[in-house]
Amino acid sequence: MKKINRIVIVGFGSIAQALMPLLAERYNADVVIFDKEVDAARTCIADEFSARLIKRTVTVHNYREVIAPYLDAHTFLLNLAVSVSSEALIELAQSFGALYLDTCIEPWEYAEQDATLTSNFSLRESLKSFAGTKAQNDATAVVAHGANPGFISILLKKAMVQMAALNDVAFNGKTHQDWALLAQALGIRVIQISERDTQISETPRSQGHFMCTWSVDGLITECLQPAEMGWGSHESELPKGAVQQRYAVAMKQSGREVRVKSWSPNYLDFPGYLLTHNESLSIAEYLTVGEPSNPSYRPTVYYAYHPCDQAVASMSLLSSGGEENILSKQVLKDDIVSGIDELGVFLISDRYDSFWMGSNLSIGKARKMAKHNSATSLQVVSSIVAGMAWAQANPQQGVLESESLDWEFVYGIAEQYWQPIVSQQIKWRPDPDASALSFKHFLV
Fold first, then answer.
1. Given this model, what pLDDT does residue 113 score?
2. How many CB atoms within 10 Å of residue 394?
């Protein structure tokens, strides 16, 4: 296990703040944080954990001079900011032999005129090309490893093993392709990353106020980007106006404009927004059997998200296609009074009953386990520390996504924070009167 003497964090929003108590549990290390905003609340949390908080906006022009003085072979660099390039920070970290982790693949800027340049497909393909230029034994850089993307890919493997056992499907997986063949054997046609957040704040939402339970800027970006998904081999008809790029499909509508039918054990049926997410693409490509351009098997994979009701109401402020109607922003945390965040994988098969597995974490339990957290943030930050632990145990593995990590190792660390983890088989179809699992049957 590689020793870490310093942790450098870029971005001190709600997720980085929620991460601090978990870092304090696991590390005896100096913590240095850079953020463009330093207010009383941020300063108080940094001081509580003896972290050094520095007010700097990290940009393409200054990132080396700002971050490099704090890096060495015993440093862990965490990129938890929006619009701070993953590729640039990985390059910088690896030049010092430092470990790296982020929760999503970020560019320097999100293009307003041509969103395809900053679609998750484009960002991921660029990252893959970048990784191809690096040595496989470079310092480990784990990309897109929060709750989802991230731990959800770990949970997917746990769910597939359980689903196989329940249906007497033999599995002794050792390779990447073994997992794809298992998904095919289980008849999994659709994988939904299914999330229903019922947390609620006692603070009423005023006009022009955007509220949600994680990064407001992150949610806004996802709402305004085109809806993207991994595209299954069983699909015969593209959505109207959609464009297919190998394993992925981008719709002409933005994520806030597309809703799909989903299900969770606590809330049951619900409509979710099809927001673009890296795991929709990485899982689909990972579970491909045969030639990627003409696969014999690939599931359709997408994120079906119903945020808390106050966030849904806030999303109406994006009706113009931009942020001009937003007057103020707030991440709900300390003023949440009740609710849970149900987050899991929903495996929908044409051969066996559907299978849902995921977290049913409440705000009360989250607060008992780690202060400065909501149910949403704890699912993210627990995955971060689990990913960090894997990187320390495997410090020279180069650039990797969550699908390449040892799922049992990562699951063993994060599981306690995601409990209760619920699994349930159900005879579920998006349309009870139709057996087809084509994407069009899921649209609301």
1. 57
2. 18
Confidence of residue 434 (pLDDT cuts 50, 70, 90): confident
β-strands 340-349, 354-362 pairing: antiparallel
Looking at the DSSP bridge assignments, the partners of residue 30 are 6
Residue 436 amino acid letter:
A
Is residue 38 a contact partner of residue 55, using CB atoms and an 8 Å limit? yes
- Beta carbons of 385 and 23 less than 8 angstroms apart: yes
Structural contact between residues 247 and 232, judged by C-beta atoms closer than 8 angstroms: no
For each of the domains in the chain, give its residue range(s) and CATH number, in order of start. Answer: 6-142 (3.40.50.720), 151-371+417-441 (3.30.360.30)
Residue with tokens 């180069």: 398
Spatial separation of the C-alpha atoms in residues 172 and 182, rounded to whole Å: 9
Looking at residue 443, what DSSP letter applies?
B
DSSP letter at 419 equals P
CB 256 within 8 A of CB 223: yes
Instruction: Classify residue 215 as left (phi > 0), alpha (psi -120 to 50) or beta.
Output: beta
Q: Average pLDDT of 325-337?
A: 95
Q: What is the average per-residue pLDDT within 400-426? A: 97
Which sign does the torsion angle of CA 146, 149, 151, 152 carry?
A: positive
> How much helix, strand and coil, in percent to the nearest 5, is found in the chain?
35, 25, 35
- What value does the mean pLDDT take over residues 228-251? 96
Which residue type sits at 67?
A: I
Q: How far apart are CA 49 and CA 331, in angstroms?
A: 21
Q: What confidence tier does 242 reach under pLDDT thresholds 50, 70, 90?
A: very high
| pLDDT over threshold 80, residue 114 | no
With beta carbons less than 8 A apart as the criterion, state whether 67 and 8 touch.
Answer: yes
Average pLDDT of span 120-136: 94
| Partners of 332 in the β-ladder | none
Instruction: With a cut of 70, say whether residue 99 has pLDDT above it.
Output: yes
Residue with tokens 């999303």: 315
